[in-house]
Design goal:
Length: 279
């Protein structure tokens, strides 16, 4: 069997970041696929014949519904991505993990915020906030962060809450969001809300976020009973959670932080290179 380092070297062959959008509706027959599968599994990864027989059997099963037997190209990509994860984690159950979107489409942020099927926030979302969020998420630029400034009551916290709710929604549209983004299967994905003191963040921005989630028709449908505590944690499907934290440098240590809202950042401590800090 291939060693872990060899698996890492061949990871680009079926990168979890490959864009499969343009592959839907295109198929490859099993007869066309098998030589390529054998080359990858037995020649590159040096898996033994017994393991390849299991893989081939599963591929034939996946293609059984067409004549001649064939598999849609995105499903082929997902299958071999799962194979790499199964080898890396030494867990063959990952091989048949369902992948890709579990919905027909991911809606845009404007529809997500306004629609009665999702957040249903049309009456309480200013046009200026909506316009800014559409530009942030769909303006053609890949933004890493957004800094919101201005006076009290202009919608900074609300914009952050709506944006993070949309980020969470997009992740919940996938069968296995961790695998889609190269994380270990079933590892936790965390969204954090931080302010100068924990009691402040619980009563301010996290309370506002919790209110948006609890009033959302979409999240009402998918949240399990008891998954929401408006002061400590909201647990979403797919090992995704949102939590309030204090502003200490180690508050999020060890977490897979996917997104964050840092409230009242001007009042937080600034840590220097020598581990000292100033306010």
């Amino acid at each position: 069997m291939a060693k872990r380092s060899e698996i890492d070297q061949d990871w680009d062959l079926v990168s979890p970041h490959v864009d499969v959008v343009g592959l839907y509706g295109k198929y490859k027959t099993i007869d066309e696929l098998m030589p390529e599968a054998y080359a990858l599994c037995c020649e590159k990864l040096r898996l033994d014949d017994q393991i390849f027989e299991r893989i081939a059997s599963q591929l034939y099963y996946m293609g059984r519904l067409t004549d001649p037997p064939a598999i849609e190209l995105p499903q082929i990509a997902f299958f071999f991505q799962n194979l790499f994860y199964a080898l890396r984690e030494n867990d063959w159950s990952i091989l048949m993990q369902e992948r890709g979107l579990k919905v027909d489409r991911i809606v845009g942020i404007e529809e997500f915020i306004l629609s009665k099927h999702y957040l249903d926030q049309k009456r309480s979302t200013w046009k200026e906030i909506l316009r800014s969020l559409v530009d942030l998420y769909e303006g053609g630029q890949d933004y890493f962060e957004a800094v919101l400034g201005g006076g009290i009551g202009i919608g900074k916290s609300r914009s952050a809450c709506l944006g993070l709710a949309y980020d969470i929604y997009r992740l919940t549209c996938y069968h296995a969001p961790q695998l889609e983004y190269g994380l270990a299967p079933n590892s936790n994905i965390t969204f954090v809300f931080q302010s100068q003191r924990l009691e402040i963040v619980k009563k301010a921005i996290f309370a506002e976020f919790s209110g948006i989630i609890s009033g959302s028709p979409y999240f009402k449908r998918i949240l399990a009973k008891g998954a929401m505590d408006r002061t400590t944690e909201i647990r979403f499907p797919g090992y995704i959670s949102a939590i309030p934290l204090s502003s200490t440098a180690t508050a999020a240590l060890g977490l897979n932080v996917w997104g964050a809202a840092l409230d009242e950042l001007s009042f937080m401590a600034i840590y220097n290179n020598d581990s000292s800090y100033q306010v």
